[in-house]
Amino acid sequence: MEKLDIVGLGEPMLEFSRLPDSAEGRGYLQGFGGDTANAVVAAARQGARCGFVTALGEDPFGEAFLALWRSEGIDASGVRRDPAAHTAIYFITHGPDGHAFTYFRAGSAASRLGPEALPEALLRRAGILHVSGISQAISDTACDGVFRAMEIVREAGGRVAYDTNLRLKLWPAARARAVIHEALRFAEIALPGLDDATVLTGLEAPEAIADFYLGLGPKLVALKLGAKGVLVATPEMRRLIPGFAVGSVDASGAGDCFDGAFLAELARGNDPLRAARYANAAAALSTTGYGAVAPIPHRAAVEAFLKEESEP
């Protein structure tokens, strides 16, 4: 069967994002979330051939995700339905200090997906497997499933990309550090965020953090620095790729959008520096609307934005 550029594995979550108060009152915008699920949608909108591996409840929220993935052209043949568990949801609220999340995910279908239930045939088609700290934090079963998925993809000649995406509400720092850093020993591409990396490594300087993650085994590190951009590092070079200034209203999922766009560009054969600049643009554009998935731009919008930015 045809190879897939990127396959994500993790927990999708139906999203309810609080809208600004208005004369009509208060309300929530229904959307979609889940870090690796967001990233795969971002990759698909840049033209990558994508698939996703998870488990969903046999509920309307699960049906909504299947409809989303069909509309995005994402292969969902590796998605299991669990009649004994629910599809996770979360709420986003906004305040002067940014956005805050409230989760209802304990016992979700995705958290029950273990090594024995993985769709090995689909995983062997992956050029890049994208997983994260959250993929492993949601349960011990899921943690073991991610390690097995990484093994399957590597055995088939694929690469592993790993976003640290630390959520201390899901597990204690010591366990997160041990599991995430062990997983990164089997990843070729590391996608940490600066705040997460500071907690996990005890380091603060971006250069030192990049060195630390390269030392674990990845050949490419893209350290996300928020509005400042991303530090791209390999054993041979490192370069700060600046971010883009836009009229941001909601940064939910911006890092996930970066991941998906970055991996899509690598899958197209672009070098990491060019891929990072493109992904910075995609991530910036994704902050101009509410929710994690709805504002993710398609390739045409990203290319038009980059063209405008490059013109004198």
Ordered list of secondary-structure elements with their pairings:
Layout (H helix, E strand, L loop, with lengths): L3 E6 L3 E6 L9 E6 L1 H11 L4 E8 L2 H13 L6 E4 L5 E8 L2 E7 L15 H4 L2 E7 H5 L2 H16 L3 E5 L9 H12 L4 E2 L3 H8 L4 H11 L3 E5 L5 E4 L4 E4 L12 H14 L4 H15 L12 H12 L2
Parallel strand pairs: 1-4, 1-8, 2-6, 4-5, 8-9, 9-10, 10-11
Antiparallel strand pairs: 2-3, 6-7, 11-12, 12-13
Helix pairs in contact: 1-9, 9-10, 10-11
User: Given the helix and strand composition, which structural class is it?
Assistant: alpha/beta
Give the CATH superfamily. Answer: Ribokinase
Query: In angstroms, what separates the terminal alpha carbons?
Result: 46 Å
Mean pLDDT, to the nearest integer, reads 94
Shape: globular
3D architecture notes:
This protein has 312 residues and is of the alpha/beta class. It has a single domain, classed as 3-Layer(aba) Sandwich (UDP-N-acetylmuramoyl-L-alanine:D-glutamate ligase). 39% of the residues lie in helices and 23% in strands. Strands 5-4-1-8-9-10-11-12-13 form a nine-stranded mixed beta sheet, sandwiched between helices. A four-stranded mixed beta sheet has the order 3-2-6-7. A hairpin with a 4-residue loop joins strand 12 and strand 13.
Highlighted features:
nine-stranded mixed sheet, 11 helices, 312 residues, UDP-N-acetylmuramoyl-L-alanine:D-glutamate ligase, alpha/beta, 13 strands, four-stranded mixed sheet
